[in-house]
């Protein structure tokens, strides 16, 4: 196993330009307004992820209303959940141009619009567009900023903060299920969706709470991280910085040249505006419009340049091999977590455990323990003597073991134990933003995590149909668990191999230098 984060070449966003002069740390980092960011992210997870977990209530209503096949109707909720994650890389472009706050507010409006328009659906295909696409894109525009902002505001307690915020998914699953069931019973599913759309407007309030950190806050944050690090950690960070730079850190010189050109354009517009004060009102109004358009163009060009460089330029994130292995892992991980929710009802019926499962459903055990797993794993990961990477790997090993052994359990007690372990170990979801930030740094967190959740979205979109196809072919649920578990294990092996290669390279280099 690995002793520390630095062993796998993590980059904490350290900057050699930060001087040794003490800088007063900003109180909003790891405290103050940072906890308001956690609250905002917690509410976002309730309103978005919690609502998506409760879509089974609406799925029943849609089946009765439109009389379509279960497979076709299920694509409505699958599209909404999948698109929420798949649009991650494109939401990174919005964050680069507009910032997290504006992106989240626009997403909240779009999500509410998707819910409200879906209330007037005349067929399932209409829901594909309004709920699957419109509400899904809106959810993605709020979800990614909610995760990124927590990563920006926390350094010492990042894992705990992410764990607390993501517990909103579990709480939301219970709250939104009860709420939608009540609204559908009292007002019908159309009015229920209309009311839910009004409730979703609170996402705009959550977005307004995402106050951006000022540049001086980021500098203070970097100084705190450096001043608290030990000598061996500094060596690891220097090696990590060299690794990431060789893999392609965004160059600042072209950005400075572009900023200088843009400032010249804006200065010329301002000069014309000042010189034209004596002109009539229409001319002044036109100059103001020109100035606004120029500023908007500068913002869009700068944001697009950063986004494009992160994905396709010489400084692409894909040149970081550990990060690429992380993407491959994400493609297989999420479907393995979803498959038990699909086949557990069939397992219960096969072993005649319906009476016991009705008292305390196995899926509820997973959901409840999942909440505690996120918080506990976050607390453990923040301990000084514990590596987040090692906790992340151990949780993955536990989860894949449970996935492979679950079909062998034939009693309610053994199934309950395995489901509890699945719920606890899947709490590693709260560590994903922390591991991503350690790999690429805070500056590239939005774009990098956008890629990771995009991979998760593809897994969520294709995993359940793939499991259903295997069941139709074999008429056994066992193979769905075994195949998904083996694919999941392949992803974990990629995570293990790449850090070993990254550690081996500097040793080989030092051996060659000694021979010379």
Q: Could you give a quick summary of the protein structure above?
A:
It is a multi-pass membrane protein. The chain is mainly alpha-helical and 516 residues long.
Helix and strand topology:
Layout lengths: L33 H20 L1 H12 L3 H17 L1 H11 L1 H19 L5 H30 L4 H9 L1 H20 L1 H12 L1 H7 L6 H13 L3 H18 L4 H23 L5 H31 L9 H30 L3 H6 L2 H20 L6 H18 L6 H14 L6 H9 L4 H30 L3 H38 L1
Helix pairs in contact: 1-6, 1-7, 1-8, 1-10, 2-3, 2-8, 3-6, 3-21, 4-5, 4-6, 4-14, 4-21, 5-6, 5-9, 5-10, 6-7, 6-21, 7-17, 8-9, 8-17, 13-14, 15-21, 15-22, 17-19, 18-19, 18-22, 20-21, 21-22
Membrane topology: Multi-pass membrane protein
Protein name: MOT14 protein
InterPro entries: MFS (IPR011701), MFS_dom (IPR020846), MFS_trans_sf (IPR036259), Proton-linked_MCT (IPR050327)
Outline the structure in words:
- Helices cover 79% and strands 0% of the residues.
- The protein is mainly α and 516 residues long.
- The protein folds into two domains: 27-211, Growth Hormone, Chain: A (Up-down Bundle), CATH 1.20.1250; 313-507, Growth Hormone, Chain: A (Up-down Bundle).
- Helix 17 runs parallel beside helix 19.
- It is found in: Membrane.
- It is a multi-pass membrane protein.
- InterPro entries: MFS, MFS_dom, MFS_trans_sf, Proton-linked_MCT.
- Keywords: Membrane, Transmembrane, Transmembrane helix.
């Amino acid at each position: 196993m690995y002793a520390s984060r630095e062993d796998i070449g993590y980059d904490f966003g350290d900057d050699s330009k930060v001087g040794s002069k003490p800088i007063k740390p900003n109180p909003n980092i790891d405290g103050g307004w940072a906890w308001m960011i956690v609250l905002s992210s917690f509410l976002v997870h309730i309103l978005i992820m919690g609502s998506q977990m409760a879509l089974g209530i609406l799925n029943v209503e849609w089946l009765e209303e439109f009389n379509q096949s279960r497979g076709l109707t299920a694509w409505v909720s699958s599209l909404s959940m999948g698109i929420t994650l798949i649009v991650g890389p494109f939401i990174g472009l919005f964050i680069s141009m507009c910032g997290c706050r504006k992106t989240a507010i626009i997403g909240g409006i779009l999500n509410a619009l998707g819910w409200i328009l879906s209330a007037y659906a005349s067929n399932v295909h209409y829901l594909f567009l309004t709920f699957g696409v419109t509400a899904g894109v809106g959810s993605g525009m709020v979800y990614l900023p909610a995760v990124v902002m927590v990563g920006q505001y926390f350094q010492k307690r990042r894992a705990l903060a992410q764990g607390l915020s993501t517990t909103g998914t579990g709480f939301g699953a219970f709250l939104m299920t009860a709420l939608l069931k009540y609204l559908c019973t009292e007002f019908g599913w159309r009015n229920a969706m209309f009311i839910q759309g009004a409730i979703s407007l609170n996402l705009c309030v959550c977005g307004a709470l995402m106050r951006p950190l000022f540049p001086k806050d980021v500098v203070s944050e970097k100084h705190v991280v450096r001043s608290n690090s030990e000598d061996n950690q500094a060596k690891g960070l220097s090696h990590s910085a060299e690794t990431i730079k060789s893999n392609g850190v965004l160059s600042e010189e072209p950005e400075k040249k572009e900023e200088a050109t843009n400032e010249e354009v804006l200065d010329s517009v301002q000069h014309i505006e000042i010189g034209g004060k004596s002109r009539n009102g229409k001319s002044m109004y036109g100059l103001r419009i020109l100035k606004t358009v120029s500023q908007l163009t500068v913002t869009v060009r700068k944001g697009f340049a950063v986004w494009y460089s992160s994905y396709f330029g010489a400084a692409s994130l894909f040149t970081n091999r550990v990060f690429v292995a992380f993407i491959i892992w994400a493609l297989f991980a999420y479907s393995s977590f979803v498959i038990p929710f699909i086949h557990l009802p069939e397992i219960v019926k096969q072993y005649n455990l319906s009476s016991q499962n009705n008292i305390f459903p196995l899926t509820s055990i997973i959901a409840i323990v999942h909440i505690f797993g996120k918080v506990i794993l976050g607390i453990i990961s923040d301990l000084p003597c514990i590596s987040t990477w090692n906790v992340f790997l151990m949780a993955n090993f536990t989860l894949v073991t449970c996935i492979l052994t679950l079909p062998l359990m034939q009693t309610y007690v053994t199934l309950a134990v395995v489901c509890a372990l699945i719920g606890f170990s899947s709490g590693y979801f709260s560590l994903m933003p922390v591991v991503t930030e350690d790999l690429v740094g805070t500056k590239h967190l939005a774009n990098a995590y956008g890629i990771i959740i995009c991979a998760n979205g593809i897994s969520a979109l294709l995993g359940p149909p793939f499991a259903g196809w295997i069941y139709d072919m074999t008429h056994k649920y066992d193979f769905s668990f075994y195949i998904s578990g083996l694919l999941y294990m392949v992803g974990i092996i990629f995570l293990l191999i790449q850090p070993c290669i990254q550690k081996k390279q500097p040793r080989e280099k030092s051996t060659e230098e000694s021979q010379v």
